[in-house]
Amino acid sequence: MINLSKIKRFDIVLFASMMIIIIISLTILYSLSLENDNSIQLSYFNRQFIFFLIGLALFLIISFTDYRLIKLVSFFIYILAILLLIFVFFAGQNFSWINLGFAYFQPAELAKIAAILMLAKFWQKSKKAVNTMDMVFSFVIVLPLIYLIIKQPDFGSAMVIVFIWLGIFLLREEDKKRIFGLFLIMILLAASIWLFFLQDYQKQRILTFVNPDSDPLGSSYQVSQSIIAVGSGKILGRGFGLGPQSQLNFLPAGQTDFIFSVIAEEFGLLGSLILILFYIILLYKIIKISTQVYDNFSMIICLGTVLYFFIQIILVIGMNIGLAPVVGLPLPLVSYGGSSLLVSMLLIGIIESIVIHQPFTKNKNTIIL
């Protein structure tokens, strides 16, 4: 039975900002189904709505489950993510999806939450100055996930995990020499990935970003159409279901990678800024919670969640407006995809659990409200 005092601690702002972002997502997915009774796009909306209902149920369950129980099973989640990433090599769909019959599941999304949980568990007892071995061991934890995801190949998701690891490490590190050395290692790692892991089409995406006019009808086509869609929306947009780029299918992957362009086209700069505003409210709230929590595990979960959202938001919006290479990432809580939606909602559910079950703030003997 749920304690009434715990229900009172439920963070309404965190929940409401998440729900508003999801409502924007469902609105856009439905608008894509309007042109010529597009049954395929309507199917995207219907499936996403079902995943939302499942995600909402899981969100509420996780929110009122003590986060310390999640801490206990974090290693099993990590092992499950690794096993599923290995499994897709043998029974996966295009080496990155598992066909469940009624839907496709992407293990790379589970790997992101597994990385955050394991890094939080690793750094939870670290109160002393960070040393080089801490840096090495923390990277060894996420290395199997990164390697298996790159081999799919899914460079975008692997890059998100690298940035989550790097962000958490930099937030704890104070030695400037070690930070400089780390960046040198990252440069060598990036060069190795380019030479030995990236597929030709992935390299072409990066080269296209550097020189967008190199292949306007080929690798540059998606970005060019995306920029046209964003620009045509102007201030107020063309209206619900009235974006020619998205409705007439000039914009590829409008329901996934380039959904921000659809929002900008139909609802303009104003609609885009409203979405970004609620993202800012969501992330600000999580950052504020991270300053109030009692233990390192909770703090790093909060910071890892912020990094998870922030990195993907920046990269996806950046590639939609031509400021970042196309890396095939979902816009959290917005892009079509059940795996991404469920993981995003689960992470926010864990944050709610931290708020509800955290007894005291770090600096004050007061209950978090």
Describe the structure.
The chain has 369 residues and is mainly alpha-helical. The chain is built from 14 helices and 3 strands. The protein has helices at 4-8, 12-31, 39-63, 67-91, 107-123, 132-150, 155-172, 176-196, 200-210, 221-233, 244-247, 259-290, 296-320, 338-357; strands at residues 92-93, 97-99, 104-105. A 3-stranded antiparallel β-sheet has the order 1-2-3. β2 and β3 (104-105) form a beta hairpin.
Number of strands: 3
Mean pLDDT: 83
Order of helical and strand elements: HHHHEEEHHHHHHHHHH
Estimate percent helicity.
55-70%
User: How many helices in DSSP terms?
Assistant: 14
Q: Largest sheet at a glance?
A: 3 strands, antiparallel
Strand order in the largest sheet: 1-2-3
Strand content: under 5%
Structural class estimated from helices and strands? mainly alpha
Distance between the termini: 20 Å
Uncertain runs: 360-369
For the CA atoms, what is the radius of gyration? 21 Å
Inertia-based shape: globular
